[in-house]
Specification:
With 396 residues, this protein is α/β, with parallel strands linked by helices. The protein contains 14 helices and 10 strands. It has an 8-stranded mixed beta sheet with strand order 3-2-1-4-8-6-9-7, with helices on one face. The protein has a two-stranded antiparallel ribbon with strand order 5-10. The longest helix is centred in the first third of the chain and has 28 residues. The radius of gyration is 25 Å and the shape is globular.
């Protein structure tokens, strides 16, 4: 019998580790995971052509229903019960100021994103007890001739700031949408600081829906040592960009560490199974490490991160990623430094405000920037107020 055939027979007998490993990979990656993960939006196995439209439509319907519920809520708020002069009654130097940046939307107005976000904030503020968790300020950057109808409803309860008519005329002259968006952001950063001198500032875009544990989580983050030396903390990163196979060095370390931990557990289990020939050896350890790494990447890192929601202490903080700015935490007076950095650059396509802040944090000596995972907010904005929208928005 030829030597190559003898070698094949030796390695592909059921009792051989090679055959067992091959069978394990075929069953896992070819059968089990496709069956379990084909409906998971952020998995490699997601059947986009089959399920994306239905999931996108379901998300739009859920957001629409939430928006209509919020509309009824704010229409039912009695302005007589609201504060007479919010500029005089808001706390000076609060521990936390939440600034919501908003503008009138040409499309998707029936979803009432701002009303959804402010309803959630109003609900969360009621759970804070005697000492308020935060002050909330709405920054209306609408520069067009029409009023932002949703802001008119919410200003019964929350402080609203707007540019003067002359300032609105000047900002309308800015034709570069990325530069205008940056100027709006800087205006809101500075206005919040000038009015209240808060100890910390969170800036939310009007389609960033806070989670139910929003304020306890922010309190936990601010109590950590890193918050004393950071320009900003990103509270959101797109789920589709949270994979391990990404140019983020810390994720590679996390990925390898998870693979090694899983491999150790599997080896300990297999070593007690007499029907399997896997033993505590380096080749087996290496194989199982790669096996676990491939499995968690194909299933989707996003779903692994969701386990961390069990406790605020489990949320992980890492170096900041590039995109995006729906929710940003500026500890201490960092909002002023961020505004100054943004003022130094003219934004354009490919160099929007998120990229400017990211580059400044990396290139300026002594500055740091961080991201939190999993996401602290849910990005509900299927329709943008500053960019061209598709006819039928999709989740990915």
């Amino acid at each position: 019998m030829p030597r190559w055939r003898t070698c094949i027979n030796k390695h592909f007998q059921w009792s051989s580790p090679v055959a067992q490993g091959l069978l394990l990979c075929v069953l896992t990656f070819g059968v089990l995971l496709p069956i379990c993960c084909h409906r998971l939006l952020y998995s490699y196995y997601f059947l986009k052509t089959v399920y994306l439209d239905s999931l996108s439509d379901a998300a739009l319907e859920e957001s629409y229903n939430r928006g209509q519920e919020a509309l009824l809520f704010w229409e039912g708020v009695d302005s007589k019960e609201s504060l007479k002069d919010l500029t005089e009654t808001v706390a000076k130097k609060p521990d936390l100021l939440v600034t919501v940046v908003t503008a009138r939307r040409m499309e998707g107005r029936e979803y009432h994103y701002l009303l959804q976000v402010t309803q959630r904030l109003a609900s969360l503020l009621k759970t804070c007890g005697d000492k308020p968790c935060a002050e909330v300020m709405l920054c209306d950057v609408e520069s067009g001739p029409y009023l932002n109808e949703d802001v008119l409803l919410v200003e019964k309860q929350f402080l609203v700031v707007r540019r003067s008519p002359d300032e609105r005329s000047k900002i309308r002259e800015v034709s570069n949408i990325f530069e205008k968006e940056k100027k709006d952001y800087v205006y809101c950063l500075r206005k919040g600081w000038d009015l209240m001198r808060p100890k910390n500032i969170i800036v939310l875009e009007d389609d960033a829906l806070p989670g139910t544990d929003f304020f306890p989580l922010i309190k936990n983050l601010l109590s950590r040592k890193f918050a004393l030396n950071t320009l900003y903390v990103k509270l959101y990163h797109p789920e589709r960009l949270q994979r391990y196979w990404n140019p983020e060095p810390y994720r590679i370390l996390e990925w390898v560490g998870l693979g090694m931990f899983g491999a150790t557990i599997l080896l300990l289990i297999f070593s007690h199974c007499t029907s399997l020939s896997l033993t505590l050896s380096f080749p087996h350890f290496l194989f199982l490490t790669l096996y676990i790494m491939a499995m968690v990447e194909l299933v989707g890192r996003h779903y692994l991160l969701e386990v961390r929601r069990l406790s605020p202490q489990l949320y992980t903080v890492s170096p900041a990623t590039e995109c995006c700015t729906p929710a940003m935490l500026f500890p201490g007076n960092a909002s002023i430094r961020a505004a100054e950095y943004l003022d130094q650059v003219v934004c354009a396509q490919g160099n929007a405000k998120d990229m400017v802040l990211y580059k400044k944090a990396r290139s300026t000596p002594g500055e740091r920037a961080h991201s939190v995972e999993p996401n602290v907010i849910k990005h509900i904005g299927a329709y943008s107020s500053v960019r061209v929208n598709p006819l039928r928005p999709k989740l990915i």
